[in-house]
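Researcher: Next sequence.
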Amino acid sequence: MRRINLVLFQLGGRGLGLLNYRNRDISGEEAFIRHALSSADAPVVFDVGANEGQWSSYAMSVNPTAKIFAFEPHPQTYARLVSKLPNVRAFNLGLGERQGPLMLHDYAEGSGSSHASFVDGVIENVHGRKAATLQVEVTTLDEIASAEGVDEINLLKIDVEGMELAVLRGAQRLLERGAVKRIQFEFNEMNILSRTLFADFHALLAPRYHLHRLLPHGWLDIDRYNPWTHEQFVFQNIVAELRPGAA
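Model: Next structure:
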């Protein structure tokens, strides 16, 4: 029964929101973005790991009044982002746990990819290609929000190839006062290389946020931590919504 059990295991995983990466509809992102932004009045949106602005572009199509702050540390990718979305407030910066320079890893051939990561090993160990590095500047969400006069973030999206927890730790002041209403972030095999457990995200967010895993057209409640169902190091989109009264 091994083969049948393996097929059932894989199908069950997809039914629980794992490995649904083919497009934004299957991943559940489109439904969640509409839920978060469609009825909001001029919502403030932070797109961390914006790449060329694909996610930001869809968010703007859902709510044209959205004020989007997009962060992309790779200079080549940042240039493409600015050319494609000139109305977005774009920053050639990475976001992390502290300010300062950091080494960004990308393909040696084909630099400026969507797989660029601050985590050493993502390019060579996960994607099986030769890596090259470049130094970029990193700041924190707390610092950039303060500098830009942002008091509240309606939706924070984080897709930074394994460094999502560092971004959230750099937003400690914002999180503590409930200034971030909704968060969407990826959890996947890159978190093995960054030595990040889902338990770390749960400990940081669960006291103030309801946690869910996105499904194609909904979301699965994962508030109560369970290593068997939570520590799955494959593609998944996690969302956190501020609990009532947590602000």
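Model: The chain has one domain: 12-99+142-242. The chain has a mean pLDDT of 96.
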